[in-house]
Amino acid sequence: MKKTCLKSVRLFVVLLLGLSLVFAGQATAKDKVYRWKIQSGYPHGDLSFELLKGFAEDVKKLSNGRFIISVFADPEIVPLEQLFDSTKMGVLDMLHAAGAFWGGIIPVGEVEFGIPYAYRVESETDFTKKADKVRQFFFDQGFADLLRREYGKHGLYWLDMHTYGPVPFVLSTKPITTMADLKGTKIRDEGIYTNWHNMLGARGTYLSGSEAYLGLKTGVIDACQWDVSAISGLKLHEVAKYWVVGEENDHAVGHMLVNQKSYNKLPEDLKQVLKTAAANYWHATVKGYEAEVQAAEQMVKEGTIVKTVLDAGSIAAHKKAADALWQEVAKRDDASKQAIELLKNWKR
User: Fold this and answer.
1) Cβ 227 vs Cβ 119: under 8 Å
2) Model confidence over 190-206: pLDDT tens digits?
3) Over the stretch 147-175, which tens digit does the pLDDT of each residue have?
4) What CATH class is the domain 169-249+300-347?
5) Which fold has domain 33-164+252-296?
């Protein structure tokens, strides 16, 4: 009888110990704080970078402090040219930039960012409605799925998109309205826009955003393409007061890429937090860039900057060059071909 009782007590103790370990494990998983690093491809002053701080705050709030993301600007941890590989290798958990930077690695990234005239939404006049149409293209036409497959091949998870507003937003040290004005112009460019401007007689070159002000001031470059935060954040209008209009998409698109191993380690509820905060960030960029475009228009009225509009002949030449680029991009790989077809179907 005593032996039976002793066995029962031992079994009870073992069960209690097992249950305590299970609950301790659950409590540990629930209480664990995940600490990540994200670096942007853009410097302090760039609007999309400044708004990225709100994304991190959103993640912390939605996770009740269980998920903390530290935000860094270019080049606070690594220079831009190392950003992709550093995130791929896990030096960073996330990056914030645009597919145009990685066009040599993932060609479809050029289409993602917005090849010339891709994201012009003629059916809408409202800034937000134009943005909504572009987002619908990504998520309703299968483009986001295609991008996730392509970035996934490199160990990166394509999380979500954001807008930079009208790009290329060109500021110049001289007025540009004709093809003659454009010829020989040294313009700070990125990705396929370098090819486009070279086809049009300009001289596309790359400088980092932090170097653009001095480049314009000293004559290293004559013009710079960026987004509207070229005015509001980088203050380039102080040395290049002419705003060149006619080349831009209504919206250009950036992304956040996540190291796949880091993403896989997150519990499901924090994965959802990340997705929700990224979607909120999209709306923050739409609102932020619309306000900055309106502020730029006000500066035109006040005479602080001068808007110069490309003439009809220049627009025709730009469109002809853009058509040739679309055909060239479609030949780069299967993903680019699929993306161009998706774009053409969407724009019909």
Assistant:
1) no
2) 889 999 999 999 999 98
3) 999 999 999 999 999 999 999 999 999 99
4) alpha beta
5) D-Maltodextrin-Binding Protein; domain 2 (3.40.190)
